[in-house]
Amino acid sequence: MGKKVRVIHYLNQFFAQVGGEEKGGAGPGVKKGAVGPGRVLQQALGDRGEVVATLFCGDNYFAENQEKATEKLLQYAALSDPDLLIAGPAFKAGRYGVACGAICRAAQERLRIAAVSGMDEENAGTALFRKSVYIINSGSSAARMAPILQRMSALGIKLAQGAPVGKPEEEGYIPRGIKRNEFAAKPPAERAVDMLLAKIRGDPFKTEISAPEFHPIKPAKPIRDLASAVIALVTDGGLVPEGNPQRMEPGRPTRFTALAVDGLDRLDPDKFDVNHSGFDTAYANQDPHRLVPLDVARDLEREGVFRKLHDTILATGGAHAAVENATRIGRGMAERLKTEGVDGVILTST
Amino acid sequence: MEIPVVQICTMIPVAKEVGSLRVIPSGGIVSPTGNPALAPNEEKEFRRNLVLSALRALQEEL
Q: What is the pTM of this model?
């Protein structure tokens, strides 16, 4: 049997027995040995590991001072020369979950130690950290503290000892989106047909590649008075100034650009290019209005159909966009258009 | 404050899948707001009608 794994345990103010919600502002601290749920963690570890210290911080303090709190907690952690950080479980508590995720990631990156947290799938910390941190799916009920800590410690010991880690469903962690090659007993065609037959029979089956999930979007309120509205043109079709001076990506975009069109009646093909790796851009390069309808939008502005055409066009090259990047780019565009007083957007996509 | 967006695009099912709520079918992949087969004045008229549809969609209560 290997040497005992030195474990540090992160808890919020409540579980560390500092106090309830009123102590949410409490700063980072450290206690020797196990505290509160730490005793259950110690039982789960058995003789494989020892809880050498408990780190804690108020949830509000952490949320408001994430960098400072992380820094201080890492300093405390380093004093104990740990092999493994166990954070939480935080169950449904969002601020606690975010703190657990942040401290786990920081410990992995900066102390180079293994880290495991536990949270509900719907915890805000799960969305933020599931790709970088092993998070045991705790469900929402704190009544499951003991079995969840058992899973967290089992996975933590494996990580700390460098033992191979099983799949999410075997270990109980939330999928991190990591793909690993493995040998299958049957070729893909047979596996696909097996899945299809299972689906038709109504038997359970598991897809090998899960599609990204898109959350429903709340509809924005419509424009009430078009005649007084500012309308912006946006495209994911890769409109750029001639020569693409900003070196915008033609695909796999990470950013967007803003093209000034104040006072322009038309998009001159000699002054604009279409730079996109996902479609034949010849037609749009001949006449950029085939991608962005500036000419008719300007006409409609003059006719008073709407009050003003926004003075910039926002553009990105949307081919093969990673969902995360696309979301970030879209958010950036929306924030900019909001501050610039735009009332409605016409987005053109190839 | 939130801003309504209307998307003029070809792949309507994809637009819906990712959560686009106001969608206008476009002139095609290579020319969303045009149609190279039309004469220039007809093409502009086609584009104007697309944009007018888009503006109507921005005024729809969902």
A: 0.63
